[in-house]
Specification:
The protein is mainly beta and about 425 residues long. It has 2 domains: about 5-220 and about 335-425, Neuraminidase; about 225-335, no CATH class. Helix content is about 5%, strand content about 45%. The chain has helices spanning about 10-25, 175; strands at about 50-55, 80-85, 90, 100-105, 110-115, 120-125, 130, 140, 145-150, 155-160, 165-170, 180-185, 195-200, 205-210, 215-220, 225-235, 240-245, 260-270, 280, 290-295, 300-305, 315-320, 330-335, 335-340, 350-360, 360-370, 375-380, 385-390, 395-405, 415-425. The strands form 7 sheets. A 5-stranded antiparallel sheet has the order 1-8-9-10-11. It has a 5-stranded antiparallel sheet with strand order 2-27-26-25-24. The termini are far apart.
Length: about 425
Protein backbone atom coordinates (compact mmCIF):
# COMPACT_ATOMS: atom_id res chain seq x y z
CA UNK A 1 0.00 0.00 0.00
CA UNK A 2 1.51 3.34 -1.06
CA UNK A 3 0.45 5.47 1.89
CA UNK A 4 -0.59 5.41 5.50
CA UNK A 5 -3.28 8.02 5.79
CA UNK A 6 -2.88 8.38 9.53
CA UNK A 7 0.47 10.07 8.94
CA UNK A 8 -0.48 11.89 5.76
CA UNK A 9 -1.16 15.35 7.18
CA UNK A 10 2.19 15.58 8.96
CA UNK A 11 4.14 14.52 5.93
CA UNK A 12 2.05 16.69 3.60
CA UNK A 13 3.23 19.76 5.51
CA UNK A 14 6.86 18.59 5.28
CA UNK A 15 6.68 17.82 1.56
CA UNK A 16 4.87 21.03 0.74
CA UNK A 17 7.58 23.01 2.50
CA UNK A 18 10.32 20.98 0.83
CA UNK A 19 8.89 21.46 -2.67
CA UNK A 20 7.70 25.04 -2.40
CA UNK A 21 10.37 26.79 -0.40
CA UNK A 22 12.66 27.10 -3.40
CA UNK A 23 10.08 29.31 -5.02
CA UNK A 24 9.00 31.12 -1.84
CA UNK A 25 12.34 31.35 -0.21
CA UNK A 26 14.58 32.76 -2.93
CA UNK A 27 15.33 30.29 -5.62
CA UNK A 28 17.40 31.77 -8.45
CA UNK A 29 14.82 33.07 -10.84
CA UNK A 30 14.12 33.53 -14.50
CA UNK A 31 14.81 36.69 -16.42
CA UNK A 32 13.62 38.40 -19.57
CA UNK A 33 13.35 41.73 -21.36
CA UNK A 34 10.54 44.14 -22.09
CA UNK A 35 11.50 47.55 -23.42
CA UNK A 36 11.01 50.75 -21.39
CA UNK A 37 7.48 52.04 -21.60
CA UNK A 38 6.00 48.77 -22.83
CA UNK A 39 2.91 47.32 -21.23
CA UNK A 40 3.29 44.54 -18.67
CA UNK A 41 1.91 41.74 -20.80
CA UNK A 42 2.10 38.03 -20.41
CA UNK A 43 4.61 36.30 -22.61
CA UNK A 44 6.63 39.33 -23.78
CA UNK A 45 10.39 39.10 -24.19
CA UNK A 46 13.13 36.51 -23.94
CA UNK A 47 14.17 35.18 -20.55
CA UNK A 48 17.84 34.38 -19.92
CA UNK A 49 17.67 32.02 -16.97
CA UNK A 50 15.61 29.45 -15.04
CA UNK A 51 11.87 29.90 -14.75
CA UNK A 52 10.04 32.02 -12.20
CA UNK A 53 7.51 30.42 -9.87
CA UNK A 54 5.26 31.31 -6.96
CA UNK A 55 2.63 29.67 -4.75
CA UNK A 56 -0.57 31.31 -3.57
CA UNK A 57 -0.84 32.00 0.18
CA UNK A 58 -3.82 30.80 2.19
CA UNK A 59 -6.37 33.63 2.25
CA UNK A 60 -9.82 34.40 3.52
CA UNK A 61 -12.40 36.20 1.44
CA UNK A 62 -13.14 36.48 -2.26
CA UNK A 63 -11.63 39.88 -3.15
CA UNK A 64 -8.26 38.58 -4.33
CA UNK A 65 -7.71 41.07 -7.12
CA UNK A 66 -9.11 44.56 -6.24
CA UNK A 67 -9.32 47.53 -8.54
CA UNK A 68 -6.03 49.20 -9.44
CA UNK A 69 -5.09 51.90 -6.93
CA UNK A 70 -7.08 50.53 -4.01
CA UNK A 71 -5.53 51.76 -0.77
CA UNK A 72 -4.17 49.62 2.04
CA UNK A 73 -6.27 49.25 5.15
CA UNK A 74 -3.63 50.22 7.73
CA UNK A 75 -5.14 52.23 10.60
CA UNK A 76 -2.14 52.39 12.91
CA UNK A 77 1.24 53.75 11.77
CA UNK A 78 3.41 50.80 10.85
CA UNK A 79 6.77 50.73 9.11
CA UNK A 80 7.21 47.32 7.52
CA UNK A 81 10.40 48.33 5.69
CA UNK A 82 13.26 50.34 7.21
CA UNK A 83 16.15 51.15 4.81
CA UNK A 84 19.55 50.65 6.47
CA UNK A 85 21.89 51.78 3.70
CA UNK A 86 21.92 55.38 2.41
CA UNK A 87 23.53 54.47 -0.94
CA UNK A 88 21.06 51.79 -2.00
CA UNK A 89 17.53 52.68 -3.10
CA UNK A 90 14.63 50.79 -1.54
CA UNK A 91 11.32 51.29 -3.36
CA UNK A 92 8.00 49.98 -2.04
CA UNK A 93 5.65 49.29 -4.96
CA UNK A 94 2.40 50.85 -3.79
CA UNK A 95 -0.04 50.11 -6.61
CA UNK A 96 0.13 46.33 -6.87
CA UNK A 97 -3.02 44.23 -6.46
CA UNK A 98 -3.84 43.11 -2.94
CA UNK A 99 -2.18 39.88 -1.71
CA UNK A 100 0.52 40.04 -4.41
CA UNK A 101 3.51 37.74 -3.87
CA UNK A 102 6.31 37.94 -6.42
CA UNK A 103 7.52 34.86 -8.28
CA UNK A 104 10.42 36.56 -10.05
CA UNK A 105 11.27 38.75 -13.01
CA UNK A 106 9.41 38.48 -16.33
CA UNK A 107 11.68 40.98 -18.08
CA UNK A 108 14.17 43.71 -17.24
CA UNK A 109 11.37 46.00 -16.01
CA UNK A 110 8.59 43.47 -15.45
CA UNK A 111 7.81 41.23 -12.50
CA UNK A 112 5.54 38.21 -12.21
CA UNK A 113 3.60 36.80 -9.27
CA UNK A 114 0.24 35.82 -7.81
CA UNK A 115 -2.38 38.02 -6.22
CA UNK A 116 -4.22 35.41 -4.22
CA UNK A 117 -4.94 32.89 -6.99
CA UNK A 118 -4.66 35.34 -9.92
CA UNK A 119 -1.42 35.47 -11.98
CA UNK A 120 -0.19 39.05 -12.35
CA UNK A 121 2.36 40.66 -14.71
CA UNK A 122 3.44 44.12 -13.53
CA UNK A 123 5.45 46.77 -15.41
CA UNK A 124 7.69 48.86 -13.15
CA UNK A 125 7.91 51.74 -15.66
CA UNK A 126 4.21 52.11 -16.41
CA UNK A 127 3.04 51.01 -12.96
CA UNK A 128 0.41 48.88 -14.69
CA UNK A 129 -0.49 45.22 -14.54
CA UNK A 130 -2.32 42.56 -16.51
CA UNK A 131 -3.80 39.29 -15.30
CA UNK A 132 -4.84 36.21 -17.34
CA UNK A 133 -8.36 35.07 -16.48
CA UNK A 134 -7.60 31.85 -14.64
CA UNK A 135 -7.29 30.45 -11.12
CA UNK A 136 -3.83 29.29 -10.04
CA UNK A 137 -2.77 27.70 -6.77
CA UNK A 138 0.82 27.86 -8.00
CA UNK A 139 2.35 29.14 -11.22
CA UNK A 140 5.68 28.93 -13.04
CA UNK A 141 6.68 31.14 -15.98
CA UNK A 142 8.85 29.57 -18.68
CA UNK A 143 12.35 30.96 -19.33
CA UNK A 144 11.29 32.28 -22.76
CA UNK A 145 8.40 34.16 -21.13
CA UNK A 146 5.86 32.60 -23.48
CA UNK A 147 4.28 29.81 -21.41
CA UNK A 148 2.73 29.43 -17.98
CA UNK A 149 2.47 26.23 -15.96
CA UNK A 150 -0.15 26.42 -13.21
CA UNK A 151 -2.13 24.19 -10.86
CA UNK A 152 -5.64 24.45 -9.49
CA UNK A 153 -8.54 22.25 -8.42
CA UNK A 154 -8.80 20.77 -11.91
CA UNK A 155 -5.15 19.67 -11.99
CA UNK A 156 -1.98 20.71 -13.82
CA UNK A 157 -2.11 23.01 -16.85
CA UNK A 158 0.15 24.53 -19.48
CA UNK A 159 -0.98 27.78 -21.08
CA UNK A 160 0.58 29.46 -24.13
CA UNK A 161 0.36 33.14 -23.22
CA UNK A 162 0.05 34.24 -26.84
CA UNK A 163 -3.31 32.44 -26.95
CA UNK A 164 -2.14 29.61 -29.19
CA UNK A 165 -3.07 26.77 -26.89
CA UNK A 166 -3.87 25.23 -23.51
CA UNK A 167 -2.94 21.73 -22.31
CA UNK A 168 -4.36 19.82 -19.35
CA UNK A 169 -1.41 17.76 -18.08
CA UNK A 170 -2.98 15.82 -15.23
CA UNK A 171 -5.87 15.60 -12.78
CA UNK A 172 -5.94 15.85 -9.00
CA UNK A 173 -8.80 13.42 -8.44
CA UNK A 174 -7.12 10.17 -9.44
CA UNK A 175 -4.09 10.93 -7.25
CA UNK A 176 -6.10 12.13 -4.26
CA UNK A 177 -7.85 8.77 -4.14
CA UNK A 178 -4.45 7.26 -3.38
CA UNK A 179 -3.44 9.94 -0.86
CA UNK A 180 -1.44 12.08 -3.30
CA UNK A 181 -1.31 15.80 -3.97
CA UNK A 182 -0.25 17.84 -7.01
CA UNK A 183 3.10 19.59 -6.60
CA UNK A 184 4.58 22.31 -8.79
CA UNK A 185 6.45 22.62 -12.06
CA UNK A 186 10.02 23.39 -13.17
CA UNK A 187 10.85 24.48 -16.72
CA UNK A 188 13.91 23.32 -18.62
CA UNK A 189 16.39 26.03 -19.56
CA UNK A 190 15.27 25.98 -23.22
CA UNK A 191 11.52 26.03 -22.30
CA UNK A 192 10.95 22.80 -24.29
CA UNK A 193 10.35 20.49 -21.33
CA UNK A 194 8.50 20.78 -18.03
CA UNK A 195 9.01 18.74 -14.87
CA UNK A 196 5.90 18.33 -12.69
CA UNK A 197 5.10 15.96 -9.85
CA UNK A 198 2.64 14.36 -7.44
CA UNK A 199 3.67 13.89 -3.81
CA UNK A 200 2.67 11.01 -1.54
CA UNK A 201 3.45 10.17 2.08
CA UNK A 202 6.96 8.87 1.53
CA UNK A 203 7.58 9.06 -2.22
CA UNK A 204 6.92 11.23 -5.28
CA UNK A 205 5.93 10.62 -8.89
CA UNK A 206 7.81 12.81 -11.37
CA UNK A 207 6.90 13.45 -15.00
CA UNK A 208 8.65 15.36 -17.79
CA UNK A 209 6.28 16.84 -20.35
CA UNK A 210 7.68 17.47 -23.84
CA UNK A 211 6.15 20.38 -25.72
CA UNK A 212 7.34 18.86 -28.99
CA UNK A 213 5.78 15.40 -28.54
CA UNK A 214 2.93 16.36 -26.22
CA UNK A 215 3.74 13.36 -24.02
CA UNK A 216 4.53 13.15 -20.29
CA UNK A 217 7.35 10.72 -19.45
CA UNK A 218 7.37 9.18 -15.93
CA UNK A 219 10.82 9.26 -14.30
CA UNK A 220 12.44 6.44 -12.34
CA UNK A 221 13.83 8.31 -9.29
CA UNK A 222 14.11 5.51 -6.75
CA UNK A 223 17.41 5.05 -4.89
CA UNK A 224 17.94 2.12 -2.54
CA UNK A 225 17.63 3.34 1.04
CA UNK A 226 16.34 6.83 0.08
CA UNK A 227 12.93 8.51 0.11
CA UNK A 228 11.28 11.99 0.29
CA UNK A 229 12.70 13.00 -3.09
CA UNK A 230 12.21 16.65 -4.10
CA UNK A 231 13.20 18.58 -7.26
CA UNK A 232 15.97 21.21 -7.41
CA UNK A 233 16.11 22.24 -11.07
CA UNK A 234 17.58 21.67 -14.51
CA UNK A 235 21.37 21.58 -14.75
CA UNK A 236 21.01 21.80 -18.55
CA UNK A 237 18.44 20.86 -21.22
CA UNK A 238 18.73 17.13 -20.46
CA UNK A 239 19.83 16.74 -16.82
CA UNK A 240 17.69 17.21 -13.71
CA UNK A 241 18.87 17.63 -10.11
CA UNK A 242 16.97 16.20 -7.11
CA UNK A 243 17.24 16.11 -3.32
CA UNK A 244 16.73 12.79 -1.56
CA UNK A 245 16.69 11.78 2.13
CA UNK A 246 18.25 8.58 3.48
CA UNK A 247 15.65 6.35 5.18
CA UNK A 248 18.25 4.52 7.27
CA UNK A 249 21.70 5.10 8.70
CA UNK A 250 24.81 3.87 6.93
CA UNK A 251 25.06 1.02 9.43
CA UNK A 252 21.57 -0.14 8.35
CA UNK A 253 19.61 0.90 11.47
CA UNK A 254 16.29 2.54 10.85
CA UNK A 255 13.57 4.35 12.85
CA UNK A 256 10.59 6.57 12.03
CA UNK A 257 12.33 9.69 10.76
CA UNK A 258 12.37 12.44 8.12
CA UNK A 259 15.79 11.24 7.11
CA UNK A 260 19.26 10.56 8.52
CA UNK A 261 21.15 12.47 5.83
CA UNK A 262 20.42 14.15 2.50
CA UNK A 263 22.14 13.81 -0.87
CA UNK A 264 21.88 15.27 -4.35
CA UNK A 265 21.12 13.06 -7.34
CA UNK A 266 21.24 13.62 -11.10
CA UNK A 267 18.83 12.28 -13.74
CA UNK A 268 19.97 12.23 -17.38
CA UNK A 269 17.07 12.22 -19.84
CA UNK A 270 19.40 11.68 -22.80
CA UNK A 271 20.45 8.30 -21.41
CA UNK A 272 16.89 6.94 -21.41
CA UNK A 273 14.31 6.26 -18.73
CA UNK A 274 15.72 3.70 -16.29
CA UNK A 275 16.94 3.54 -12.70
CA UNK A 276 20.52 3.37 -13.94
CA UNK A 277 20.27 6.91 -15.25
CA UNK A 278 19.50 8.31 -11.79
CA UNK A 279 22.62 8.50 -9.63
CA UNK A 280 23.85 10.22 -6.48
CA UNK A 281 26.43 12.95 -6.97
CA UNK A 282 27.14 13.49 -3.24
CA UNK A 283 27.82 11.13 -0.36
CA UNK A 284 26.76 12.78 2.91
CA UNK A 285 27.61 11.34 6.31
CA UNK A 286 24.88 10.51 8.83
CA UNK A 287 23.69 13.80 10.31
CA UNK A 288 24.86 15.77 7.25
CA UNK A 289 22.25 17.26 4.92
CA UNK A 290 23.11 18.56 1.44
CA UNK A 291 20.10 20.02 -0.38
CA UNK A 292 19.94 21.99 -3.60
CA UNK A 293 18.29 25.39 -3.81
CA UNK A 294 18.54 25.94 -7.56
CA UNK A 295 20.41 24.65 -10.59
CA UNK A 296 21.54 25.98 -13.94
CA UNK A 297 24.40 26.10 -16.42
CA UNK A 298 26.69 27.31 -13.60
CA UNK A 299 26.06 24.15 -11.55
CA UNK A 300 24.05 23.60 -8.35
CA UNK A 301 23.48 26.23 -5.66
CA UNK A 302 23.06 24.30 -2.42
CA UNK A 303 22.71 24.41 1.36
CA UNK A 304 24.60 22.06 3.71
CA UNK A 305 23.99 21.68 7.44
CA UNK A 306 24.53 19.26 10.29
CA UNK A 307 22.11 18.01 12.94
CA UNK A 308 18.38 17.43 12.56
CA UNK A 309 16.56 16.78 9.31
CA UNK A 310 14.28 19.82 9.68
CA UNK A 311 17.23 22.25 9.37
CA UNK A 312 15.27 24.85 11.31
CA UNK A 313 15.88 28.56 10.84
CA UNK A 314 18.43 29.79 13.34
CA UNK A 315 20.93 27.01 12.79
CA UNK A 316 24.11 27.88 10.93
CA UNK A 317 24.43 26.42 7.46
CA UNK A 318 26.90 26.40 4.60
CA UNK A 319 25.92 27.75 1.18
CA UNK A 320 27.85 27.13 -2.00
CA UNK A 321 28.03 26.06 -5.63
CA UNK A 322 29.04 22.64 -6.97
CA UNK A 323 29.24 21.18 -10.46
CA UNK A 324 26.47 19.05 -11.93
CA UNK A 325 28.65 15.98 -11.40
CA UNK A 326 29.51 16.98 -7.82
CA UNK A 327 32.65 18.71 -6.56
CA UNK A 328 32.35 22.01 -4.70
CA UNK A 329 33.44 25.24 -6.35
CA UNK A 330 33.02 27.37 -3.23
CA UNK A 331 31.19 27.33 0.10
CA UNK A 332 30.67 29.74 3.01
CA UNK A 333 28.87 29.73 6.36
CA UNK A 334 25.84 32.00 6.94
CA UNK A 335 23.44 31.99 9.91
CA UNK A 336 19.68 32.45 10.31
CA UNK A 337 18.83 32.42 6.59
CA UNK A 338 15.12 32.53 5.69
CA UNK A 339 15.55 32.90 1.92
CA UNK A 340 18.57 33.21 -0.37
CA UNK A 341 19.49 33.56 -4.06
CA UNK A 342 22.58 33.85 -6.21
CA UNK A 343 23.13 36.73 -8.65
CA UNK A 344 23.13 36.01 -12.42
CA UNK A 345 26.93 36.45 -12.60
CA UNK A 346 27.34 34.14 -9.54
CA UNK A 347 29.39 36.77 -7.64
CA UNK A 348 26.85 38.04 -5.08
CA UNK A 349 24.42 36.51 -2.60
CA UNK A 350 21.16 38.16 -1.53
CA UNK A 351 19.46 36.73 1.55
CA UNK A 352 16.99 37.30 4.36
CA UNK A 353 18.51 36.84 7.81
CA UNK A 354 16.20 36.50 10.80
CA UNK A 355 17.25 38.77 13.68
CA UNK A 356 14.40 38.31 16.16
CA UNK A 357 10.69 38.50 16.83
CA UNK A 358 8.46 41.59 17.02
CA UNK A 359 5.08 40.47 18.32
CA UNK A 360 3.56 38.12 15.73
CA UNK A 361 6.02 39.24 13.03
CA UNK A 362 9.55 38.01 12.46
CA UNK A 363 12.21 40.68 12.32
CA UNK A 364 14.71 40.17 9.49
CA UNK A 365 17.34 41.98 7.44
CA UNK A 366 17.82 41.93 3.69
CA UNK A 367 21.54 41.47 3.09
CA UNK A 368 23.78 41.24 0.04
CA UNK A 369 27.21 39.66 0.29
CA UNK A 370 29.85 40.19 -2.36
CA UNK A 371 33.56 39.43 -2.16
CA UNK A 372 32.96 38.15 1.36
CA UNK A 373 31.57 41.46 2.63
CA UNK A 374 27.94 41.69 3.86
CA UNK A 375 25.89 44.84 3.27
CA UNK A 376 22.61 45.29 5.17
CA UNK A 377 20.04 46.91 2.88
CA UNK A 378 16.81 46.98 4.90
CA UNK A 379 15.11 45.75 8.05
CA UNK A 380 11.78 44.01 7.45
CA UNK A 381 8.89 42.71 9.52
CA UNK A 382 7.65 39.44 8.07
CA UNK A 383 4.30 37.81 8.74
CA UNK A 384 3.03 34.48 7.43
CA UNK A 385 4.18 34.78 3.79
CA UNK A 386 7.23 35.91 1.86
CA UNK A 387 8.89 35.16 -1.47
CA UNK A 388 12.34 36.03 -2.73
CA UNK A 389 14.81 37.60 -2.89
CA UNK A 390 14.96 37.46 -6.69
CA UNK A 391 17.72 39.00 -8.83
CA UNK A 392 16.85 40.97 -11.98
CA UNK A 393 18.29 39.75 -15.32
CA UNK A 394 21.19 42.20 -15.19
CA UNK A 395 21.79 41.67 -11.49
CA UNK A 396 21.21 45.35 -10.72
CA UNK A 397 17.96 44.97 -8.74
CA UNK A 398 16.55 42.69 -6.06
CA UNK A 399 12.85 41.85 -5.78
CA UNK A 400 11.14 40.72 -2.58
CA UNK A 401 7.52 40.26 -1.46
CA UNK A 402 6.20 39.62 2.04
CA UNK A 403 3.24 40.06 4.34
CA UNK A 404 3.17 41.61 7.80
CA UNK A 405 0.57 41.47 10.55
CA UNK A 406 -0.63 45.06 11.11
CA UNK A 407 -2.67 46.31 14.06
CA UNK A 408 -5.78 48.37 13.36
CA UNK A 409 -7.37 51.09 15.48
CA UNK A 410 -9.81 48.53 16.84
CA UNK A 411 -6.80 46.47 18.10
CA UNK A 412 -7.51 43.72 15.60
CA UNK A 413 -4.78 42.50 13.23
CA UNK A 414 -4.83 42.09 9.46
CA UNK A 415 -2.21 40.70 7.08
CA UNK A 416 -0.92 43.37 4.69
CA UNK A 417 1.27 42.62 1.67
CA UNK A 418 4.37 44.51 0.51
CA UNK A 419 6.67 44.25 -2.51
CA UNK A 420 10.00 46.06 -2.67
CA UNK A 421 12.68 46.56 -5.33
CA UNK A 422 16.21 47.41 -4.18
CA UNK A 423 18.94 48.80 -6.42
CA UNK A 424 22.48 49.92 -5.68
CA UNK A 425 25.80 50.70 -7.33
CA UNK A 426 27.58 48.88 -4.52
CA UNK A 427 27.13 45.45 -6.07
CA UNK A 428 26.58 46.37 -9.72
Amino acid sequence: MRTRLTNFLLVFVFLAATFLLPSCGGQETGQGSVGPGEEAQAGVGEVEGPATSVTAPELEGDELLPEEGEEREEDVEFEAVKPLDTISQVIIIEDLPRYFLAGGWAGSENIFGLSGTSPVFYNLNNKSFSSPELTAWSASLSPDGQKLFYTNEEGAHLLHLNGSGHHHLGSNKEKEMDGGFLGGGLWSLDSKHLLFWYGYEWDTEFYVYSLESGEALPLQTQLEGYFLTSPVGWADEQRLVFNSRASRKKDGTQEYSFGYRSDLALYDLAAGNSKGNYKKITDADDGEFIEGISAGAYGIFYRRWFGDADGSTGAAAYYGVMGAEGGRHWEEKIENVMGISLSPDRTTLAYLAKTGQEGVNSRAKLVVKTQGKPLELAELYLGSSWSGPYWSPRGDKILLSFSASVEGKDKSYSEQYYTIVVSSSLWH
